[in-house]
Amino acid sequence: MAKVKFFASLKDLVGLEEIELDVADHHSLMSELERHLSVEGYEAICVASVKIAVNHEIVEPGFVIRQNDEIAFLPPITGG
Q1: What is the total count of domains within the chain?
Q2: What is the pTM of this model?
Q3: Which of 57, 79, 54 is nearest to 68 (CA)?
Q4: Largest CB tally within 10 Å, which of 30, 65, 67, 68?
Q5: For residue 69, what are the domain limits?
Q6: Is the dihedral of CA 46, 49, 50, 55 positive or negative?
Q7: What are phi and psi of 43, to 5 degrees?
């Protein structure tokens, strides 16, 4: 199982702070999230500017997930 977390505005859009899923890679992660999230929530995490981190390291699509990994969806950074 992997712990999947949503931060900041994504947490509000998805309606969850965290979910545990049994996934092995980026493709299976996204498939499971599509099944568990609302259409709006899933679309929010699929935006190109959303970053994904595995164990606090930003990763690119194609990453592998190991047992007990922590996956975080990070919204675009804004500031002034």
Answers
A1: 1
A2: 0.91
A3: 54
A4: 65
A5: 2-74
A6: positive
A7: -60, -35
